[in-house]
Amino acid sequence: MIAGTACPQAAKPFLLACMTVGLWPAAAEAAGLADQLQGLATESGFAIEGLERLSDEPARRAEGSVKDRLQTLLQGYNYVLAESRPGNIERLVITGIARSGGRPPPSSTIPTLRVGAHHQVEALLVGPNGVPQTVSVLVDTGASTVVLPTSMITSLGFDAATLSAGVSQTASGRVHTKTGVLPSVTVGPASAENVAVSFIADKRLNGAMLLGMSFLNRFRVTIDDEHNEIVLLAK
């Protein structure tokens, strides 16, 4: 609690909004940005991942709603914000320092189709042959790359012999992969260039294709479960 301010116990979820402008807790000044974000997550009841991706920097002054504070605290970083409904944050994933390569307009709101607990969107993929292909992909913050079936290697213009072979750990076990780079990926009005892609045997994917972090980490992402949409913003 900040000296000189008071918030009723019943308004505890809104404690941060009760902070008086101009007052700044001494503890926050002494702590780093990572500690400040962890404290905000604990106070507001949402899960946070990726604190290790922050640079070593001091806490920042932030005011307003929890979402406003996060936008201020994470200036210069890309992140994924999952909301069960607007303003009800459930999960924050810090994906890294904002970098070039994402080109959406100021705000790209993209409707999704719910497939169980997942959000599905249409993505336009361009491979080395320059031929666009539209596919349905599941938004998956747990996937490090875009994930496609090996049957698409040739149709996208890749030479299978030049792709890098590897092994990936999935929920169903370790799988062999071939990795490359897609010249561009577009979802709604948002696009990114040089996006890492992993190809996995069709039978292991069971028809699913994934929009992973090699695309998502180019943006600040909000996943809205209530309205079935994702919002992509770029620095």
UniProtKB/TrEMBL annotation:
Gene3D superfamilies: Acid Proteases (2.40.70.10). GO terms for molecular function: aspartic-type endopeptidase activity. The keyword Signal applies. GO terms for biological process: proteolysis. InterPro entries: Aspartic_peptidase_AS, Clan_AA_Asp_peptidase_C, Peptidase_aspartic_dom_sf, Retropepsin-like_bacterial. The keyword Signal applies. Residues 1-30 form the signal peptide. Keywords: Signal. NCBIfam families: clan_AA_DTGA (TIGR02281). This is Conserved domain protein. It comes from Methylococcus capsulatus (strain ATCC 33009 / NCIMB 11132 / Bath).
